[in-house]
Amino acid sequence: MSQTPEQFHQLAKNALGDKQLRANFRGAMDYLRDKRKTAFSDANEEKQIRDLAESIRQRCLSKLPELLEQLEFNCYKNGIQVHWTENPEQANAIIAAIANEHDAKQIIKGKSMVSEEIEMNHEMAKLGIECLESDMGEYIVQLDGDKPSHIIMPAIHKNKQEVSDTFEQHLDGFKPTTDVDSLIQTGRTRLRQKFFEADIGLSGVNFAVAETGTLCLVENEGNGRMSTTVQCAYRNNGH
């Protein structure tokens, strides 16, 4: 849903005045910084890797149309069907057609920011098709009827008590706890069953190799592999 500048400014003001929300973000960001320091003890090495990644990205963007056509050609050679769309309406129409082709009533999703941008979940719900998020953070905010607040940590704005409250409200048989491992295990157990019940799996793609027609997913939860291998049909809505 679009917002006017005035609405955005008011929402931002409200968020900045929310002490609990700010504490949640502060704790999460401190955790992320500590993890980064552990992974990259050498600041110069980290910068070199980031600079290399950025140079590769810029080089690809400079010849994107050519690379996309090459990717399409090689994907077809690998047995992958490619669809082109110009807007969210076309994208959702294609997804709906594929779902109807497979008589699908439930789609399970790996991480896909494009599906967020086109409001796929909302559009599929109009057609009686349930879309379930399988990324743990996305799953939490979906249960709560909330929106993701960070591209790689969708539930960064929620603390463990809020997650427990969400599970207690929406998951039958859940016993309230603020133990992080127990909360994660609860989510995993519920999602694992959903992977086997879903008719279609869908995911985004972190990067693609045009020369080989290869789609690459990076994950740390296992949901990327599960959402692309378990279901009878798998669809990728690339970034």
How would you describe the overall organization of this protein?
With 239 residues, the protein is an alpha/beta fold. It folds into two domains: 1-62, no CATH class; 64-236, no CATH class. The protein is 57% helix and 9% strand. The chain contains eleven helices and six strands. The strands form two sheets. The chain has a four-stranded parallel β-sheet, sandwiched between helices. It has a two-stranded antiparallel sheet with strand order 4-5. Strand 4 and strand 5 form a beta hairpin. It starts with a helix and ends with a strand. The model has no long low-confidence stretch (mean pLDDT 90).
Annotation, overall tally of beta strands: 6
Helical/strand content category: alpha/beta
Strand content: 5-15%
Instruction: Sketch the topology as an H/E string, one letter per element.
Output: HHHHHEHHEHHHEEEHE
Count of discrete alpha- or pi-helical segments spanning 4 or more residues: 11
Widest sheet: strand order? 2-1-3-6
Helical proportion?
55-70%
Q: What is the terminal separation in angstroms? A: 21 Å
- Major sheet summary line: 4 strands, parallel
CA-based shape: globular
